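Q: I'm writing a short explainer about Tripartite tricarboxylate transporter substrate binding protein for a general audience and would like to include a description of its predicted shape. Could you first generate the structure from this sequence?
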Amino acid sequence: MRSRILLAAALLLAAPAAWAQSFPTPGRPVLLLGGFPAGTQADIYWRLIQNQLSAALGVPAVVEARSGASGNIAMEATARAAPDGHTVLAATSAMLAINRAVLPQMPIDTQTDLAPVMTLFEVPNVLVTSTEKRPQFTDCRALIGAARDAPGRLNYASSGIGASTHLAAAQFATAASINMVHVPYRGGPFAMTALYQGDADLFFYQSGPVLDDWRLGRVRLLGITSAQRVATLPEVPTIAEACDMPGFVSTTWYGIVVPARTPRPIIDRLHAEIRRVTDTPEIRSRMEAMGFTMMLGGPEEMRTRLAADIPHWAGVVERSGARQQ
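A: Of course. Here's the predicted structure. Afterward I'll give you a sentence or two in plain language.
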């Protein structure tokens, strides 16, 4: 009996090393998931590092945008996948921390059904309006004045219920004491289309996808939701400055998660390889040009940040009334 116990203990101690050596399974792709449509930030990031990560792991890395339900479809798919490192999700803090406060039902628990791998980057939103469809919104104060003159007439687009684009606008409306209608879309590109067509009055969106149209004069950026102006958009004031809202900050961050019960050696391998291929001058410059601040913290840092964000965003949702009924 004693020898069997010792053998079982030895096998348990050897298991992590075996898991690390067996990952990835030769010839089997690693699936890189995003929770929103192709062309949004997680998708762009994965495609930037796809080839380098594939070479680092020695197997194909396949990018897939699995959008819907404010990112919950991708999170549930990840949580239900085998905990073997072959399913990896780039998730937003909105998916991980805000959805549980906004949505009446969640298919998973983001703290127990997913395991953190690393933080990636942080990004603010910009307040965007169409120069053609809403030329009267020359600045933030003009927009707030219009909303106060016609309560409930203005609407704001979002990339989905519970997304950072939703909560930033809800937080903004509360701070400005205005009443606007929320119109969720299935991702940022669809919300931007609504803005260009005049179906949406405004949209809080990440800066990267709108920079070209801003430079062409198609959109106006009325403010940025960071605490300070960003180097890539020095002309754009903060919301605190432009809208006379001292202390207004509303940013989102991205992190990598895998299914819970994924062995720690696999998590450490993924963290090391993703960090290495990301932390290069080429990738850093491209991400920072889109307004991202690189983070690249490990599992513990991500776990701590998520634990702090959950009650923070629950308070924002409570104060703004943004919860879905």
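A: For your explainer, you could say: The two ends are 58 Å apart (CA to CA).
Q: Perfect, that's easy to follow.
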